[in-house]
Amino acid sequence: MRHLPILEQRVFIELRPKRYRCPTCDNHPTTTQQCDWYEPRSPHTKAFDQSLLRQLINSTVSDVARKQEVSYDAVLGAINRGVARSVNWSEFTALKVIGMDKIALRKGHRDFVVIVTLRRGDGDIALLGVLPNRKKETEVAFLRSIPLKLLQ
Questions:
Q1: 72 with 65: CB under 8 angstroms?
Q2: What is the pLDDT of residues 100-117, one digit of tens each?
Q3: What are phi and psi of 7, to 5 degrees?
Q4: pTM of the model as a whole
Q5: What three-state secondary structure class fits 60?
């Protein structure tokens, strides 16, 4: 699986997770070791996926794919794995600055998405969501989903 580059050199990790068989359970089921730094069946580590998502700010999916020498679908996969379908607003105590960047999925086409980010108190950027289009109704619906207690 692909990991973050070191000194601008691509890094791949070959992993063979351990498999275990329960000797005391009926039918002796097996289980496979899982680590928190990767998703099973993902071609990238979670750190590399997060890196791809950060590079999408002010860039297109095609540009990020070309720069990182991965496929267009690999970047879309990182988006699907890294962006929750809904925002867990309970993780946030206050909203200082929200950014909404409209990006083209492909240059010269009219396929746009909106990347919604938040600057946390410690300076880190949290990805709140990827809106499927740049229509005003979609953006307003997202903004209306923010709880009132966070807007004060």
A1: yes
A2: 988 777 766 677 888 888
A3: 50, 45
A4: 0.60
A5: coil
